[in-house]
Specification:
The protein has about 375 residues and is an alpha/beta fold. The chain has helices at about 5-10, 10-15, 20-30, 40-50, 85-95, 115-120, 130-145, 170-175, 190, 195-215, 260-265, 280-290, 305-310, 325, 345-355, 365-375, and strands at about 30-35, 55-60, 100-105, 125, 150-155, 155-165, 225-230, 235-240, 280, 295-300, 335-340, 360-365. α4 (about 40-50) runs parallel beside α10 (about 195-215).
Length: about 375
């Protein structure tokens, strides 16, 4: 391929680098990358890869832009709220570099479509935020012998690596053989994330992709880079390929994609899911608050900082983290409705209290988010 005069001007700061030059820039321009996720990590990754001249960028995302995304997902703007993230990302990428081919995959990555989608690209970058998709991405990349530029973020910490057994390194399963129990690791929606953090980790992932495209430098294959933003410190762990890994080990037992929701312990969704006997609706929570004669106490198990952002009048705060020390303040014979932000932590609180002998405990489905949607729109969503 030949670079046009406009492309030479655009990539001039690359071209004068001896490690890149004309030959290296042509390699970058002929490389295709699949970005799984157009969120916090996917935003800086896609934008910097587009600026660098990656020839084809695929975007896999089925979500729409929400106001809460704008604090970190810089590929989207205020005017994009409500739009598909894929479409917003495509416009931003073309605004940065119209020479880049953008391919939209407005779908959830599944065991049924992953191999077909990933097979079209040279390198895959994992910008996901859930364990089923991480394991799915890893397994598909190993089976197809594609490098997987991995990153993850939470609160003030992030990590990055490159998983590529076909290049001599380990895979994601070598590092994390088993997923954590469902709900054990909070999502960014539950635990929060510093807005600039995905920019830092995403830029590291983008750097690794460009090095792979160029065939230059020492990659993160066989290394896990850990970053703590509060301390402004990087640490590095050496990773080794696990000979007993069921996917990339000496005697692999995983030779095709599996059911990753089931593998991660997440129950399958049904068209008409049965009501959980441990859950009540926000309408039932409202009845309990409106009618003290029912004898039901409502308790908020979120953190104090969240309570300051938004709370339901008349509902006292009883943080989940304090429950093991303070549950004796509660009456085991009293009926309680527990609520959090979305229903995850209130279920944890429910299970703990039942283990302590509480019999009349229910979790409010959807938490204060559902309350804001269905009962009181004046309560802020966050």
């Amino acid at each position: 391929m030949q670079l046009s005069n406009e492309e030479i001007r655009r990539y001039s700061r690359h071209l004068i680098l001896p490690e890149v030059g004309m030959a290296g820039q042509k390699k970058i321009c002929s490389t295709s990358v699949l970005c799984i996720g157009a969120g916090g990590l996917g935003s800086p990754i896609a934008m910097y890869l587009a600026a660098a001249g990656i020839g084809k960028i695929g975007i896999v995302d089925f979500d729409a832009v929400d106001f809460s995304n704008l604090q970190r997902q810089i590929i989207h703007g205020t005017e994009d709220v409500g739009r598909p993230k894929c479409k917003s990302a495509e416009e931003t990428i073309h605004g940065i570099n119209p020479n880049v081919e953008v391919v939209i995959h407005e779908t959830r990555l599944t065991s049924e479509n992953a191999l077909e989608i990933i097979s079209r690209y040279d390198i895959v970058v994992d910008g996901t935020d859930n364990f089923p998709t991480r394991y799915l991405t890893n397994d598909a990349c190993v089976l197809l012998k594609k490098p997987n530029a991995y990153g993850s973020i939470f609160r003030f910490e992030g990590q990055a690596s490159v998983f590529a057994p076909h290049l001599g390194g380990p895979c994601y399963r070598c590092l994390y053989p088993e997923p954590p129990p469902p709900g054990m690791v909070p999502s960014c929606a539950e635990g929060g994330v510093l807005g600039v953090l995905p920019g830092i980790i995403g830029c590291i992932q983008a750097t690794e992709i460009l090095k792979l495209a160029l065939g230059k430098g020492s990659s993160l294959i066989g290394r896990l880079l850990l970053f703590n933003a509060l301390d402004m410190k990087f640490r590095e762990l050496k990773l080794r390929r696990d000979a007993k890994c069921p996917l990339c080990g000496e005697s692999p037992t995983i030779t095709k994609l599996i059911d990753y929701e089931q593998f991660c312990g997440i129950p399958a969704e049904t068209e008409s899911p049965a009501a959980n006997p441990d859950e009540v609706t926000v309408q039932e929570m409202k009845r309990a608050l409106d009618d003290p004669k029912l004898g039901i106490r409502v308790i908020d198990v979120r953190d104090p900082d969240e309570y300051q952002i938004a709370h339901v009048a008349g509902v006292p705060l009883f943080p989940l983290g304090e429950l093991p020390k303070r549950f004796t303040e509660l009456d085991p014979n009293q009926q309680y409705y527990l609520h959090c932000k979305s229903g995850v932590r209130s279920m944890k609180a429910l299970r703990f209290l039942k283990e302590q002998g509480f019999k009349y405990v229910k979790s409010v489905k959807g938490g204060i988010s559902a309350w804001a949607d269905e009962i009181d729109p004046g309560v802020p969503r966050y």
